[in-house]
Amino acid sequence: MLELAAHAKINLSLDIKGRRADGYHELETVMQSIALHDRLVFSAAADGAISLECDSGEVPAGPENLVYRAALLLRENTRCRRGVRISLAKRIPVAAGLGGGSADAAAALAGLNRFWNLGLPPAVLCSLAAVLGADVPFCLRGGTALARGKGELLTPLPALPAMGVVLAKPPFGVSTARVYAAYDQRPAGPGPDTAAMLAAIEQRDPAAVARCLGNVLEPVTASLHPVINDIRRALLRAGAMNALMSGSGPAVFGLCRDEREAGRVAARLTDVPGKILVTRLAGNCPAM
Ligand code: ATP
């Protein structure tokens, strides 16, 4: 039996630098792991079957689940024909911009590489990860990184202090594809100052990191769901250093000095709809 944590991510900054010939957007985003995680347990299967059980009704339990797709992809690319039973405990809110499916997919790749003794090197795992989704390569390693291209061109960055994070997840999900389609219909607005964010991270300066938060998709998702602006303002009023929507949303995070302070901020968010979670920034995830 093998058990692995699959950590959620937030985007400290997210900019779109253009549209690629293959239809994807050219991203420039600073991604950051947080302590909030799903849990995957791998155990032996008597036959060669791959089976998945999940404690959440919000994600598909069958072949459309990214965990299942990761297992199939590994078998297609190796001679392995072994089976596995995977149980997935979901704690990361679904369709929230927190990369839950990507984190699970990365943990499945890394976990099965060990469980099936495949011995695939990190570079091969990383290219398989990119097949499963733009955020999956980041999730293999986690920590703090600049991601470019579709998200697969990663530059590791210095680890930040374990700042506290308040997550506010409104009671609905959004489709990432729909948000990008809406972005394409709008005139381009100013993007975040990625260089300033990188400098703040180099200096490991929490206040500067908080000041430099920016996400070019936030006004897009907020135009579809104005409550996102209300949540961001509520986090600031409650004492967060700064607040921002993560990824394509709709989850909004507030950064705080530490996890205890995040707990105090969360306790003041009495009028915010949806789920409130308290967590902290996390370092590299040792999954790979
Ligand atoms: P992204 O921005 O990559 O779409 P997200 O954090 O906004 O990520 P996810 O929680 O990853 O959203 O869910 C996106 C979709 O992926 C959901 O509609 C869900 O049904 C599907 N999905 C497939 N496998 C999983 C999984 N293991 N966990 C969560 N969602 C999954």
TrEMBL record:
<dbReference type="InterPro" id="IPR004424">
    <property type="entry name" value="IspE"/>
</dbReference>
<feature type="binding site">
    <location>
        <begin position="93"/>
        <end position="103"/>
    </location>
    <ligand>
        <name>ATP</name>
    </ligand>
</feature>
<keyword id="KW-0808">Transferase</keyword>
<dbReference type="GO" id="GO:0016114">
    <property type="term" value="P:terpenoid biosynthetic process"/>
</dbReference>
<dbReference type="Pfam" id="PF08544">
    <property type="entry name" value="GHMP_kinases_C"/>
</dbReference>
<dbReference type="InterPro" id="IPR014721">
    <property type="entry name" value="Ribsml_uS5_D2-typ_fold_subgr"/>
</dbReference>
<feature type="active site">
    <location>
        <position position="135"/>
    </location>
</feature>
<feature type="domain" description="GHMP kinase N-terminal">
    <location>
        <begin position="65"/>
        <end position="143"/>
    </location>
</feature>
<feature type="active site">
    <location>
        <position position="9"/>
    </location>
</feature>
<dbReference type="InterPro" id="IPR006204">
    <property type="entry name" value="GHMP_kinase_N_dom"/>
</dbReference>
<dbReference type="InterPro" id="IPR013750">
    <property type="entry name" value="GHMP_kinase_C_dom"/>
</dbReference>
<keyword id="KW-0067">ATP-binding</keyword>
<keyword id="KW-0418">Kinase</keyword>
<keyword id="KW-0414">Isoprene biosynthesis</keyword>
<keyword id="KW-0547">Nucleotide-binding</keyword>
<dbReference type="GO" id="GO:0050515">
    <property type="term" value="F:4-(cytidine 5'-diphospho)-2-C-methyl-D-erythritol kinase activity"/>
</dbReference>
<comment type="pathway">
    <text>Isoprenoid biosynthesis; isopentenyl diphosphate biosynthesis via DXP pathway; isopentenyl diphosphate from 1-deoxy-D-xylulose 5-phosphate: step 3/6.</text>
</comment>
<dbReference type="GO" id="GO:0019288">
    <property type="term" value="P:isopentenyl diphosphate biosynthetic process, methylerythritol 4-phosphate pathway"/>
</dbReference>
<dbReference type="InterPro" id="IPR036554">
    <property type="entry name" value="GHMP_kinase_C_sf"/>
</dbReference>
<dbReference type="Pfam" id="PF00288">
    <property type="entry name" value="GHMP_kinases_N"/>
</dbReference>
<comment type="function">
    <text>Catalyzes the phosphorylation of the position 2 hydroxy group of 4-diphosphocytidyl-2C-methyl-D-erythritol.</text>
</comment>
<dbReference type="GO" id="GO:0005524">
    <property type="term" value="F:ATP binding"/>
</dbReference>
<dbReference type="InterPro" id="IPR020568">
    <property type="entry name" value="Ribosomal_Su5_D2-typ_SF"/>
</dbReference>
<feature type="domain" description="GHMP kinase C-terminal">
    <location>
        <begin position="197"/>
        <end position="270"/>
    </location>
</feature>
<protein>
    <recommendedName>
        <fullName>4-diphosphocytidyl-2-C-methyl-D-erythritol kinase</fullName>
        <ecNumber>2.7.1.148</ecNumber>
    </recommendedName>
</protein>
<comment type="similarity">
    <text>Belongs to the GHMP kinase family. IspE subfamily.</text>
</comment>
